[in-house]
Amino acid sequence: MKNIYHWLLLIVSAHAYACAFVCNAYLWWLSLLFLFPFFLALNYSSLSFIHGFVWAFIAVFYAMSGLFFVLMGISGDAWIVGFCLGLLMVLFCSVCGGIVMMCAHMVIKKYAIVSVGLRYSVYGIALFVFFWFLDSHCLLLVGLPEGCPLLYPLLPLAHQPSLLWIVPYSGAMGLLLMVIGITICMMIYHTWRWCLLYSLFFVVYYELSCVFYVPAERPMDMPRIGAVPCMMRLTSQSADCVMQMITRRLKNFLIRYPSTEIVVMPESSLNGLTEKDFRCLNHESLGKPIHIIFGSERVTDQGLYNTAYYLYNGELRYYCDKQHAVVMTEQLGWFLDTPFFRELYFNKAEQIVTSRDCKQRIVVGDLGACVLYICSELFSAKRCLHQGECDIIIALVNDLSFSLYMHAEYIHELLLLLAQYKAIIWRQNIVYISYHYAFFIDTHGICHALNNG
Questions:
Q1: Which candidate, 22, 32, 33, 23, places its Cα nearest to that of 61?
Q2: Are 432 and 395 in contact (CB under 8 A)?
Q3: How many separate helices (H) and strands (E) can be counted in the chain?
Q4: What residue ranges do the domains of the chain occupy?
Q5: Alpha carbons 264 and 164: distance in angstroms, whole number
Q6: What is d(CA 275, CA 280) in angstroms, rounded to the nearest whole number?
Q7: Can you point out the beta strands (E) in 118-235?
Q8: How far, in Å, are 193, 275, 433 from residue 440 at the CA level?
Q9: CATH of domain 222-452
Q10: Residues 151-177: pLDDT tens digits?
């Protein structure tokens, strides 16, 4: 019977972790509770490799189930290849989860640790190492020295940004270590005196959140910023035809929101067009001169670049190339860079070349110093890619592929939550423009809606 309870608690813990991501709008609070059944399972038996493997497999598989549908979708008729690639990544993470639990089990056995507190602490450290691995190194299997920040266990807490006031001081992993430590203390010490102490701690934490966390008022210049989430590509249509459609779309938007001075469009919104084509986006065709920032691409002798452009009155003022490439959709890691996978995922298209240039600050209208980030540059970076102070990060995000599959739509929300996390931890205002959302995110992680057309 103890063995049944043991496994049941582990399964409940893994599902609670996953549900905090998949159903984050309603179950975000599970990211604070999934550790309790995990540590309760230790009361019945120590955890070894198989326990860690099963727990990690369930947690990662369900938390990232949306990515499975995307991988299968972009694989076309060879959907089984996409499924197997996703499964391979989950198995890799699961093996690593099993290894850290096995190491914890060996430490307890070697030093004959019988104290409940010490056993909890050893497994707590093992959990911390596993989540650090997911956040920083889980893509090593495909040759990329990076992790998946969407698996950070406290990411759903961004639904309540006031809970994250301590993140700029502790860092994301520091907050995780604190949560694990508090959970262990609550599991060990649960007398009425300790319950009073916990209550006092949470009251103090809440009061400090009220002191440090002062939500910013709606910025006065927000009505001047608008988002036009459209994607125009050169297929059978000529560049002139495409530019006529985008000009008509922009004119209608300016009629609807006449105070708009700055229009931002998502990543890859005007692919296939050239600088010469953009010149028609001037005051003669739009009715007034406006600032336009959008994502496109740029072809050079070095290859194909994913690029963000900044125009004013049809004149190119600045462009920057993307410094990070998303595996499978923009670039293949060494493990996948074979003729079969190149044909399957890129056909005759080129892979994206990443830039090594430092991010430059630009002045966009009256917004002050701005820096352009292109999609995964914002999500994958542990620190700001730009040097010096800037007033606003303008993030161009392509989340369109997650809209094509019903079971992947929650990824939209996770990307927005991750942007809120970045705004808090970097203490940086972010203009977040995707095909799904258009928000001004202040330094406290609060989202203010922008005009969206």
A1: 22
A2: yes
A3: 16, 12
A4: 2-159+166-212, 222-452
A5: 29
A6: 10
A7: 225-227
A8: 44, 28, 9
A9: 3.60.110.10
A10: 999 999 999 898 898 899 999 999 999
Rounded to 10 deg, the angle between the 410-426 and 65-74 helix axes is 120
Q: How far is CA 133 from CA 54, 126, 143, 377, in A?
A: 17, 11, 15, 20
Residues 6+ apart with CB under 8 A from 328: 71, 74, 85, 336, 345
- Alpha-carbon distance 188 to 116, whole Å? 7
Q: How far apart are CA 57 and CA 123, in angstroms?
A: 17
Q: How far apart are CA 19 and CA 59, in angstroms?
A: 9
The residues, ordered by sequence, that sit 6+ positions from 94 with a Cβ below 8 Å of its Cβ are 53, 54, 56, 57, 60
Instruction: Report which residue type is found at 272.
Output: G
For residue 335, how many other CB atoms are within 10 A of its CB?
16
Placement of tokens 């292109």 in the chain: 374
- Taken in order 39, 41, 47, 53, is the CA torsion positive or negative? negative
- Total residues belonging to the chain: 453
Would you tell me the crossing angle of helices 192-212 and 172-188 to the nearest 10 degrees?
A: 160
Sequence-distant (6+) residues with CB within 8 A of 54 are 7, 10, 11, 14, 94
- Note the pLDDT tens digit of each residue in 57-111: 999 999 999 988 899 988 888 899 999 999 999 999 999 999 999 999 999 999 9
Query: What distances in angstroms separate CA 192 from CA 35, 39, 199, 202, 203, one per listed residue?
Result: 21, 20, 10, 15, 16
